[in-house]
Design brief:
about 400 residues; alpha+beta; 7-stranded antiparallel β-sheet; 5-stranded mixed β-sheet; 15 strands; elongated
């Protein structure tokens, strides 16, 4: 499978200027090709192929108006055309219902928050013996290597984010030798807002709420930005400060997701989660908290790490009544308001925690692949039924391994 490894880049002044030229040339080629296709569509002409666009690009580099395109690597210009083809393909697939709905390609701006160029293997880039990244017509740039690459990368993408930071993103191929040894535990996960994740073994993982904790600083920086004169250097500096504050929040959230997802995958043979309607929840009054939790990114990490390490990930339907069914006896007694966090089953008398009960039901709904044990529950006194001389048989059933999870 293909994996992406990102590392921080530290280009010097001339290298930043060279990268700025590369970003600009890539953007111009993308916009020129998009304009040609849009003009052809408006005139009722056939769709212009990628090969024709490549020929026009080569011809335009010989004209005085576009001669400066020769100052950057030709590979990144061709990759820009590939990006346009990908954008059109995704748009057409969305019209056919093969992927979620999305709009047609749009023109890029030099004021976009994110700029990127991609170098493939035939561009002649390499990692020097001294650990620097050598790019054609850019030079040798310092890289902060946080870990080693598992294999020789096929492509590298240089990215400049809104905060002015530079990153090198490598795509590498990994083999199937990373399958982890088989373990016994299997777990169901119920995602929430007060607690980020509740496991079927009874563990509750608090939600860090990175955005909520940084709101005071973000408001202050945003207020300073709003008071700066437009089109001034001070406004640019203030905008970068706002972007850096948001980047710190995003980085902290991503690190939390990585640590938790890796721990769950390593310690459990199978993991069951609920397929949440994040887009729908993001349109409610809880939108800020939903975005702050980052459920979609966390589930995506669980999915690719399960595939990488030979684990099983099962997603159950979002309409499964996990909060309405008793995890001990299976009786469904209807929906409950959100303020009810603990309830007593009328059939078996089990005192159930709402979130833990939902996590256990998530594991059960996943089927035999996730035969997770439920957490222990407290028993309430149940009066003897008229037709029997004791409590319900299910009332004496217990379960559970109490495996804690700690993040450092």
């Amino acid at each position: 499978m293909q994996l992406r490894y990102g590392f921080r880049l530290y280009p010097n002044g001339p290298q930043r200027s060279a990268l700025a030229r590369a970003f600009g040339c890539s953007r111009v080629v993308f916009n020129d090709a998009l304009r040609v296709r849009e003009d052809a569509r408006a005139a009722g002409l056939p769709f212009i192929t990628a090969g024709e666009l490549s020929k026009r690009l080569t011809a335009s580099k010989k004209t005085p108006e576009r001669a400066w395109l020769g100052g950057v690597s030709s590979v990144i210009l061709q990759q820009s055309l590939r990006d346009l083809d990908t954008a059109y393909r995704n748009f057409f697939d969305s019209l056919k219902g093969k992927r979620p709905k999305m709009g047609p390609p749009r023109f890029k701006s030099r004021k976009d928050n994110r700029q990127a160029v991609r170098f493939t293997a035939n561009a002649g880039w390499k990692i020097t013996p001294g650990g620097k990244l050598r790019l054609p017509k850019v030079g040798d740039m310092s890289v902060k290597w946080s870990r080693s690459l598992p294999s020789v990368p096929s492509t590298v993408t240089v990215i400049k984010d809104a905060a002015g930071r530079y990153f090198a993103s490598f795509i590498v191929e990994t083999d199937a030798n990373e399958v982890l040894p088989e373990v016994t535990p299997k777990v169901g996960i119920d995602l929430g807002l007060s607690h980020f994740a509740i496991l079927s073994d009874g563990t509750k993982i608090d939600s860090p709420r990175f955005l909520r904790r940084a709101e005071k600083k973000l408001k202050a920086e945003q207020r300073r930005l709003s008071r700066k004169a437009k089109a001034g250097n001070n406004r640019t500096k203030a905008r970068i400060k706002v972007a850096r504050a948001h980047a710190q929040v995003a980085d902290a959230r991503r690190e939390f997701h990585h640590q938790l997802s890796t721990k769950l995958i390593r310690e459990n043979q199978a993991v069951a989660v609920e397929d949440l309607a994040v887009k729908g929840l993001a349109r409610t009054r809880m939108a800020k908290s939903v975005h702050d939790a980052g459920w979609s990114a966390f589930l995506a990490m669980l999915e690719y790490k399960a595939a990488r390490y030979g684990r099983t990930l099962v997603k159950i339907g979002r309409f499964e009544p996990t909060s309405q069914v008793c995890s001990q006896c299976g009786v469904k007694d209807g929906p409950k308001p959100l303020h009810i966090r603990e309830w007593t089953c009328g059939a078996c008398g089990a005192v159930l925690d709402r979130d833990i009960n939902a996590a256990v039901n998530v594991a059960k709904a996943a089927g035999p692949a996730v035969s997770a044990c439920g957490a222990q529950v407290r028993r309430a006194s149940v009066p003897a039924q008229r037709d029997e001389a004791g409590t319900h048989p299910n009332a004496s059933r217990t379960s559970g391994s109490q495996t804690g999870i700690a993040l450092h």
